Amino acid sequence: KVLQQDFDKHVNLIERTLEEIPQFESERIETAKNRIHKYFEECAIKEIDRDRFEQELIYYLEKLDITEEKVRLAKHIAYFREAMVEDNSGKKLGFVAQEMGREINTTGSKANHIEIQKRVVIMKDELEKIKEQLGNIL
Fold first, then answer.
1. Which residues make Cβ contacts (< 8 Å) with residue 24, sequence separation at least 6?
2. CA distance 84 to 79
3. CA–CA dist 45, 94 (Å, integer)
4. What string of DSSP letters covers 7-58?
5. What is the DSSP letter of 87?
6. How far is residue 55's CA from residue 45's CA, in Å, rounded to a whole number?
7. Tens-of-pLDDT digits for all 138 residues of the chain?
8. What gap in Å lies between CA 37 and CA 31, rounded to an integer?
9. Who contacts 48 (Cβ-Cβ below 8 Å, separation ≥6)?
10. Using alpha carbons only, what angle is made at residue 32 by residues 24 and 100, rounded to the nearest 5 degrees?
11. Which of 24, 69, 89, 90 could be cross-linked to 107 through a Cys-Cys bond (beta carbons 3.0 to 4.6 Å apart)?
12. pTM for the predicted model, two decimal places
């Protein structure tokens, strides 16, 4: 029970931190757009084909999209909670924690925004605490 409460505490913090990320996403998109536009200006490109610029911007933003990672992480969190109440689920919890780590890391690599990066570090820290406890029971 004590271990389950500890896991709950860490998983809840990961979930709350994940829920904070969307507030920064629109700013991140605007920053990327401005960065690309500034690049064109610095390269002394006088005439920008608006259609082409929008196509390139969409392509770039698709590469930075973290929607899938957020959805998968939320699903892994739910599955972790389900597995916590099962008997002898230590290895399963370890595998789920590993998957959570993958989604957190991918979010961090795509983030391109300091506030999202800060949340990624918080989630990684909490996940490490979970892994340490899992190491104690396996």
1. 113, 115, 116
2. 9
3. 52
4. HHHHHHHHHHHHHHTHHHHHHHHHHHHHHHHHHHHHTT-----HHHHHHHHH
5. T
6. 17
7. 888 899 999 999 999 999 999 999 888 878 877 887 787 777 766 677 778 878 877 888 888 899 999 999 999 999 999 999 998 888 999 999 999 999 999 999 998 899 999 999 999 999 999 999 998 876
8. 10
9. 37, 40
10. 50
11. 69
12. 0.85
88 φ/ψ angles, rounded to the nearest 5 degrees: 50, 50
Choose among 88, 78, 94: nearest CA to 14: 78
Q: Which two tokens stand for residue 58?
A: 């969409």
- Residue 53 CA to residue 84 CA, distance in Å, equals 49
Element (H, E) at 122: helix 114-137
Residue with tokens 């605490």: 129
